[in-house]
Amino acid sequence: MSAYHSYSEDQLIAFLRMGDHAAFTEIYNRYWEMLADAAYQRLRSREDAEEVVQSVFVSLYTRRQDFFPKSTLEAYLKASLKYKVIDAYRSQQLYYRHLDGLIAEHNLRSSSTPHEQVEVKQIKEQVLLATHKLPDKCKEVFILSRFEQLSNQEIADRTGTSVSTVKKHIHKALLTLRTTFKNNLFNLFLIKIVLVKIISPF
Predict the structure, then answer these.
(1) 16: burial class by Cβ within 10 Å (0-12, 13-18, 19+)?
(2) 25 within 8 A of 61, measured Cβ to Cβ
(3) pLDDT of residue 24
(4) Which of 23, 25, 162, 186 suits 95 as a labelling partner, its CA being 20 to 30 A distant?
(5) Is 25 part of a structural domain of the chain?
(6) Which structural domain, as residue segments, surrounds residue 23?
(7) What are the residue boundaries of the RNA polymerase sigma factor 70 region 4 type domain, all occurrences included (predicted)?
(8) Residue 140 falls within a domain, yes or no?
(9) pTM (predicted TM-score)
(10) Are 153 and 163 in contact (CB under 8 A)?
């Protein structure tokens, strides 16, 4: 067991300011799980929660030389997490609003060229393939939403679940698809999601 394990917060902060990597590692290990659980309770996504917590520690390490918290280290990390979660939530809302805007714009188009139709078919095949890898209930909800165009309430009534559960399944599916297509350009992936939203299945 490292000697740092027994150090107080003040001792760890002092070593951290000197660039001590072992002190930073101890802080990371001591508070990671607590922060990740707190972030998950707010974001309901383990992947998003871990990204937010990682951002908290990156910020801490970046400003380590000038780090003089007004309260305890734990209180500082919790406050930092709170603001990172708010930023993540805002980004998520902006992301979905942008999707809605793209959907509306696409719906205004009266026709498409043969080349565009081929691209649409290819994109749809890729998204369908990725969709079938989702857990059964998540896949069912996502297909009802994006392919059958049902509202969240209609999906909840059909599947015997709550609207909040439906939203969680859709969010999980979108996150999974974002991960699947993470090597593509962001705008290309947005197009994929928009097409899934507005085009009926084969």
Answers:
(1) buried
(2) no
(3) 93
(4) 162
(5) yes
(6) 3-90
(7) 125-177
(8) yes
(9) 0.49
(10) yes
CATH number, position 140: 1.10.10.10
Our count of domains for the chain comes to: 2
Least confident piece of the model among 25-34, 56-65, 109-118: 109-118
The Cβ of residue 78 has, within 10 Å, a number of other Cβ atoms equal to 16
Three-state SS for 46-66 is HHHHHHHHHHHHHHHHHCHHH
CB-facing half-sphere around the CA of 198: CA atoms within 13 A: 17
Q: Report if residue 104 sits inside a domain.
A: no
* Residue 101 in domain: no
In the structure encoding, which two tokens stand for residue 44, read together?
């309901």
What b/e string do you get for 128-167 counting C-beta neighbours within 10 Å, with b at 16 or more? eebbeebeeebbbbbbbbbbeebebeebbeebebeeebbb
